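queue> holo job accepted (zinc ion)
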Amino acid sequence: MKCRVCRGPAVIDVRRHNANFCGEHFLRHCREQVARAIKGHQMLEAGDRVLVAVSGGKDSLAVWDILVELGYEADGLYLGLGIDGYSPESERFARAFAESRGLSLEVVDLPTDYGYDIRGAARSAKRVPCSACGLSKRHLFDEAAERGGYDALATGHNLDDEAAVLLGNVLRWQGEYLGRQQPVLHAGDGFPRKVKPLVRLGEREMAAYCVLRGIDYMVEECPMALGNKHIGYKEALNSIEERSPGSKHAFYFGFLDRAADLFVPGDDDRSPIRACVRCGSPAGAEVCAFCHLLERAGGHLPSNGRDVPVRLGRPISEAR
Ligand code: AMP
Ligand code: FES
Ligand code: ZN
Ligand code: ZN
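queue> job finished
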């Protein structure tokens, strides 16, 4: 197996591209794919300040590393979800990476800063954990990006993630979700721009990227996500991809090129009509969904000497 670029010994094959690469040229391939996604979908401009949501897993650490390599000013944000046996370990990986590269990482911890955790919130709100988790993440990622004045918030969603979500949405023809399934969501109404620079790279490539770059990452998946529908969709797509390499790419990018415009995003928390009276963040009602979740979970807005978060130009303390 020879590297497509230099004909030296290859360390990885990327069947989707019908190509093998040596370590050096594989790393270059990953950076090129990210640069291409950024340019093609107008995710970022030179000089943008980016906040990268890092979970301690391979994808988010890799996207942080690549954005820095590409010259962006990128800081990290880690959100501690209070999941025993999972959150403390994943936080250690995120901190170790930031320290090893001299990068700045903000840590927001749900139990310490907001007085609740995902398990408790899911139980009291009668939601599945991933739903309470997704709601909390969306709110706190947006909040941190706005507060820090970043140009964009980046996540580590890769091609496997996006294709699996797309399959789930198509199976049920969830038009309002399909209308929002874009690699970039533009800023507006108090929301930051959100970008997914890894959409051209798969899970296996990101694991190889981390190994070749010496990045230690949390391998275990969240224990509460076990049995999650997306895992089944990923398995189904993997078995199709195995027989027909390139299917995932064709499915996802074919959707973006030929079908995404047919769907209109539904009214959701990205169509706010006012500022939440409690936290000041954009909301579709008087009180935002996050503050409702906080209330049910017995949590509180930060009041323990951390910087007062500001949304829509109003400090939380004034909004209350
Ligand atoms: P997931 O929702 O676990 O599929 O993760 C998707 C992306 O969300 C990751 O690639 C990260 O960018 C981000 N993310 C997930 N969990 C966290 C976390 N605890 N803290 C910060 N970012 C996270
Ligand atoms: Fe969200 Fe596990 S990471 S429920
Ligand atoms: Zn090579
Ligand atoms: Zn609120």
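queue> The domain at 33-264 is CATH 3.40.50.620 (Rossmann fold).
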